[in-house]
């Protein structure tokens, strides 16, 4: 052995090439004898190239093959706008539009001949991007701790587990610095959600962070957690989500490390799959009772999140809310085009209605019952761009939730490997080496700049259309292309008007009720 090691030391290059040759011989023999992979059996050694190219296919298409408008779910120009906004760089584009403006579905926002003068715009606390909610969540039902969001643009549900700790830290810092709130995702409250942002605690079918040692929902644990965490301002009960409606959340075994297992009270290294249904209720009346039980125990507003499929549930819910004068303080409608993390392909592609169709069906039901103004409406599902936010607002949304766009702002490259634990950008992974590439401080600043830049452009659009506040947009302000030389207003196309907004002046909507740690609940 000593002579062998000495020979290696005295002949390094020969040793290296001998080792390479031996490796190739070993792979060759293994390939031609194995029966699992046809390509490798028929083309030993070089057959591995096919799997390597397949593995890096999304990156190759992004940077070498696809043009600026071909990529999905976000094309290169969309990603470029987010990246530039997050970095505080020039996010303008030159030489005119590259869009096909006669393509069916293309929206046009109609400016006014006499815009709202930007010189008259009110600037709150030296923040020219501040856009407060016009509605106070929980005020209608007299919750003990109502909440007016400082920002109508907020970070949607992405769990610690699906995202790495550095990514969650960055998003929370970004939400804090921009005044947005941060939805925890159904994985529950983690130590990385405590950087100072207001929180929407999402409770899904797994009741993570809200369950006892047997996995059952524990109202006392919920009340205690809210009491100890004054930054928890809202609770969202997740019925379903756009990427996998009717199916529980999926956290692959590779991502379930000891820390996540401890937070969720699940086994280490095993797939963490939430049930596809809640165990605490299975009727509309029981759902309303569950909402009121949580609101009574915590004092904070409680709402629901759901994708839209069958409409009978929503019809019954609207009727019960009206008859009982109880129920959710807010409703988040998630479109089928949304989705982070992991989902079966068929669910991601074919289950649940797209946002515009789903929202229109639900919102008009509540309008017919005369209770739509009681609810704070939140839109979710690929709405992280000013033009899409304007359309959602004109349809009736009071707030907008953004997820993947927020991920892009902290460095996501759309590699589409969220479900593998091999996210090259270190965002959607628990791999310690990959995560170290995400600096929470730097990326937190970028998340904040993205949200602030988004709001500034949204305000600019509102001013161009003669409004002081973006929630003054309505369906007549937008025209949708129906094909060559044919346009129709959004209001005519969808067949309804959003509820009228009784806006007075900006200064009337900057009271932000606090939840102080000393308050007893």
From TrEMBL:
SUPFAM superfamilies: FMN-linked oxidoreductases (SSF51395). It holds the Pfam family Glu_synthase. GO terms for molecular function: glutamate synthase activity. The chain crosses the membrane at residues 12-29. Residues 153-467 form the Glutamate synthase domain. One of its GO terms (biological process) is glutamate biosynthetic process. Keywords: Membrane, Transmembrane, Transmembrane helix. Belongs to the glutamate synthase family. This is Glutamate synthase domain 2 protein.
